[in-house]
Amino acid sequence: EDGGLGLARQLAESFVKSADDHLRKLQGAIDVGNAKAIAQTAHTLKSSSANLGAARLSAHYKDLEQRGREGRLDGALTLLDAIRREQALAAQALRDLLHTEAELAQP
Q: Which residue from 32, 27, 6, 34 is spatially nearest to 87, judged by alpha carbons?
């Protein structure tokens, strides 16, 4: 691949492809009140979204992670709704970026 750009492309593609699965996992953990699973999943997603420059999404995940660690699940569904909206925006921005990058790479 083309160095850092290739790695960035792989990270962005992985994020876009796995976004819905991660949201379903969080929804399931919230539904059953599994604070530990919420904290662990949110921690992973906080880091991956930060690495891709999705600062607001990362901040939402940080909040959800903290709530999970503290066992405070009140408001978790409201926060998950905000995460869904922000994740959709981030995923679309990454799709647009990947599309533009692919167009530029064509001769």
A: 27
Instruction: Please list the ranges in the chain whose pLDDT falls under 70.
Output: 1-5, 101-107
CA-to-CA distance for 89 and 74, rounded, in angstroms? 25
Report the distance separating Cα 46 and Cα 44, nearest Å.
Answer: 5
pLDDT value at position 26? 95
48: its two tokens:
């991956």
Cα(59)–Cα(42) distance, rounded to whole angstroms? 10
Buried/exposed 74-91: b ≥16 CB within 10 Å, e otherwise: eebeebbeebbebbeebb
